[in-house]
Amino acid sequence: MLVGIVSDTHDNTDLVDRAVETFADAGCETVVHCGDFVAPFSVTPFDGDWSFYAARGNNDGEWVVQSTVAEFGTYFGEMGELTLDGHEVAVYHGTSGAIVDALVDCGTYDYVLHGHTHERGTEDREGTVRINPGGISIPPAPEPFSVATLSTETGEIEFHELG
Fold first, then answer.
1. Which of 48, 50, 109, 135 has the smallest number of Cβ neighbours within 10 A?
2. C-beta neighbour count of 27 within 10 angstroms
3. Strand 121-125 versus strand 128-132 pairing type
4. What is the predicted pLDDT for the residue at 163?
């Protein structure tokens, strides 16, 4: 299964559209947004030909984001768990680094997906892989906007720079 991972789109409709196009072109079967859509209009483009999951970000100030996601996907709130192709996955925005570390270190999950820092990266700690797809370019995260794809079959993680 190919999983698309995105976070911190912050109402940038051009980047949202590029992310959706990237996931569609790659053939993603599942897409996970790790929070900070900000407004409901940034949610609706993710209504695609895949299973969709989303966590609440610290800038998701409009509670209508929850009901908009629920129209076509699963909204976790602050944190969620799911099983993808036999792999246990935690999804959290990443507002607290201590919580991200606890999720990675607890040994319960194969993957921990998060955002918040806007800095893409991956780390393998004793069998749990932490993935941050990145976010819009804001200091101190000057990298271009990126999303990630994860193959649950091979474990390969690929970052796609989109902006």
1. 48
2. 12
3. antiparallel
4. 76
Rounded CA separation 75/7 (Å): 14
CB 121 within 8 A of CB 62: no
**Model confidence at 146: pLDDT above 80:** yes
What does 69-137 look like in DSSP terms, one character per residue?
HHTTSEEEETEEEEEETTEEEEEE--S-HHHHHHHHHTS--SEEE--SS---EEEEETTEEEEE---S-
Tell whether the model's pLDDT for residue 66 goes beyond 80.
Answer: yes
pLDDT score, position 102 = 98
What are the tens digits of pLDDT across the range 2-59?
Answer: 999 999 999 999 999 999 999 999 999 999 999 999 999 999 999 999 999 999 999 9
Give me the amino acid identity at 11: D
Q: How far is it, in rounded angstroms, from Cα 149 to Cα 6?
A: 9
